[in-house]
């Protein structure tokens, strides 16, 4: 599995930064595999990282082909679907266990904690859930609206990270590569296109249990960060886990709301982030989310979307068994892959669209609200 290229086109290159302190912390790790977020531009040193793109715009298994329709028909057959979702779940669990990620222990720790007390403080009982959100996701019949899904969300994210970056020497370094590349792409885009607008307010829409939200809060410690999600169970876990860590100068605010209609003030954020959200949405929801992000951002503000990369060579070459398993737990995956995301952003009013592979399976797309936006 060749993931690094010695030479590549400019579209394949991602320019990232690493600090001398980080290189010392990584010890003997190869210099060209170090990628972490930087906060001090004076310390930045640019290195070139390349991930392999496939030959197509998207995987063949996502196109409207007879084979794709056959897979969809198999998934819709309930007895077979039940087997598939168990298989998909087992892939994540076995990946975690092979990489010393304590899936069962971490899940048990949440389920046997006082996390349930957070629900009353965070749940918006009058919230009407979009119809698509009530679909089964990730082998859970209740989708994201269950305590089990919330308890397993972080460990499942860790497992997903290891599946994306299996060559990393440790789980920590896999996370640093995935999240570090993502946040560095955000910083570089914002520095280039914002017109010196400081990132003071961030909203992480579809924040789940707060993994991406906490990363953003760590990377932008002077900013006020909001995590917003449709699942009160996920948000309860996010709030519970945040309370276990040392207090921040700017505490994270957690909001139970729909990303398409957040209720937050217009032009009140410098960064709107969606992490691994769009592949769980039909195209109509993606369009609504993009339009809401445009409303929320100030002129010069940055939109950042990280998700599965249609051009990823690895995803384009998935075996039929693996992509069938993946599609069985992601009911809107085909719609995501068939959506022209850059065009949807352009229609909403965004400019300066940029898409980069930020790990072997995922891309980060960034865009800007025009400075003359009124």
UniProtKB/TrEMBL annotation:
One of its GO terms (molecular function) is methyltransferase activity. It holds the Pfam family Methyltransf_25. Residues 202-301 form the Methyltransferase domain. InterPro entries: Methyltransf_25, Methyltransf_Superfamily, SAM-dependent_MTases_sf. PANTHER family: METHYLTRANSFERASE (PTHR42912), METHYLTRANSFERASE DOMAIN-CONTAINING PROTEIN (PTHR42912:SF80). This is Methyltransferase domain-containing protein.
